TrEMBL record:
InterPro entries: PfkB_dom (IPR011611), Ribokinase-like (IPR029056), Tagatose/fructose_Pkinase (IPR017583)
Keyword Ribonucleoprotein: no
Occurrences of domain Carbohydrate kinase PfkB (ranges): 5-289
Protein name per its UniProtKB record: 1-phosphofructokinase
Organism superkingdom: Bacteria
Family the UniProt entry places it in: Belongs to the carbohydrate kinase PfkB family.
Record keywords: ATP-binding, Kinase, Nucleotide-binding, Transferase
Region spans: Disordered: 325-345
Lineage of the organism: Bacteria, Bacillati, Actinomycetota, Coriobacteriia, Coriobacteriales
Pfam families reported for this sequence: PfkB
CDD domains tied to this protein: FruK_PfkB_like
Length: 345
């Protein structure tokens, strides 16, 4: 079973302003509300791929209630500690010519609630995967992920960590099965100058992260593709299918979900990376986390672009002929100019 942990979930309020002038009232042309936070995005995409999983974490207030109800309606099992005060944050995503995000700090969490969460984690068993991802509210210690991994150590549980900066560096000491920073995060961690932009640029940094303890390292590089340095030391580099960018929020989370969905079902690392890349791109081309039909289209387009044969296990899973035809149409859009997001996927 895959468990995702979101210590600081959010409602993502995506607004589409036509212009953005600081110091003035700006008007949005449309807006949407999604359940967010990295782990919740991963659970949402896993669910879309029919991978049964449990979303865990901490919620508060009316926004937290909304989030749990929405997960329930989507058929995603959840196990959240509820705080008595405060509210789950609302992260504002201003999706204009470039994406600008303002993420909330999150509610204050007492030690009692942390202990309650740790106790709930005792349901995890040997063979389970725990995905620790996203920022940690200020009131929790920087080494929170390490505390969780230490508590579960020796029980045959595999860890996946996708976290910013120091949090990630601390976590690799626990030898996680997978980490997935993007190229900008890797550049900031190692104070790289110039910033690594391509999978090739990121390879030396992925090697350092592996030397630090991570088993498999994926580095996503937005429109430039992605890199996997696997636990056997083999490097895999995959391009990105070209699509029109709609909303980059959750694209990196979708990669993690796509990769896990496939490796837990026995697919080899190289093809799992291709599938992961397609899932990230599909979300970038969607409003909210990608739906299955978009993933099917993008994965077909990516295999075509790479001139690669699609493994039977993926091909058998592409739901219908219509998706195949649409995939061809999407591949033909490859000449469209891609809008750039401020961070890699
Ligand atoms: O503030 P954090 O925890 O670093 O990031 C939170 C967040 O920006 O990440 C997700 C996309 O990956 C969004 O759903 C969410 O709003």
């Amino acid at each position: 079973m895959i468990y995702t942990m979101t210590l600081n979930p959010a409602l993502d309020y995506v607004m589409h302003p036509l212009t953005l002038d600081m110091g003035y009232t700006n008007r949005s042309s449309s807006e949407e509300l999604y359940c967010g936070g990295n782990g919740i995005n991963i659970s949402t995409l896993l669910n879309e791929l029919d991978v049964v999983n449990v979303a865990m974490g901490i919620v508060a207030g009316f926004t937290g209630e909304y989030l749990i109800n929405e997960l329930q309606e989507a058929g995603i099992a959840s196990n959240f500690v509820k705080l008595d005060r405060g509210y789950t944050r609302i992260n504002v995503k201003l999706n204009g010519i470039v994406m600008t995000m303002v993420n909330g700090m999150g509610p204050k969490i007492s030690q009692k609630k942390v202990d309650e969460l740790l106790d709930r984690m005792d349901v995890l068993q040997s063979g389970d995967t725990l995905v620790l991802t996203g920022s940690i509210p200020n009131s929790l210690p920087e080494d929170m992920y390490n505390q969780i991994m230490a508590r579960l150590a020796g029980r045959g549980i595999q860890f996946v960590v996708d976290a910013p900066g120091q949090l990630l560096m601390e976590s690799i000491k626990a030898h996680p099965f997978l980490i997935k920073p993007n190229n900008h995060e890797v550049g900031r961690i190692f104070k790289a100058d110039p910033m690594p932009e391509t999978p090739e640029d990121c390879l030396p940094y992925a090697q350092k992260l592996q030397e630090g303890g991570a088993r498999n390292v994926i580095v996503s590089c937005g429109g430039n593709g992605s890199l996997l340095l696997d636990e056997y030391g083999t490097e895999h580099m995959v391009p990105t299918a070209r699509v029109r960018l709609v909303n980059a929020t959750g694209a990196g989370d979708s990669m993690v979900a796509g990769f896990l969905a496939k490796v837990t079902r026995g697919l080899d690392y190289e093809n799992a990376l291709i599938y992961a890349s397609a899932c990230g791109t599909a979300t970038a081309a969607s409003k909210g986390i990608a739906k299955r039909s978009t993933i099917d289209r993008v994965v077909t387009a990516l295999y075509k672009k790479m001139g690669r044969e699609m493994p039977a296990s993926i091909a058998d899973d592409i739901k219908n002929e219509k998706a195949r035809a649409e995939a061809q149409a999407l591949a033909a859009e490859g000449n469209d100019e891609e809008k750039q997001s401020p961070e890699g996927a």
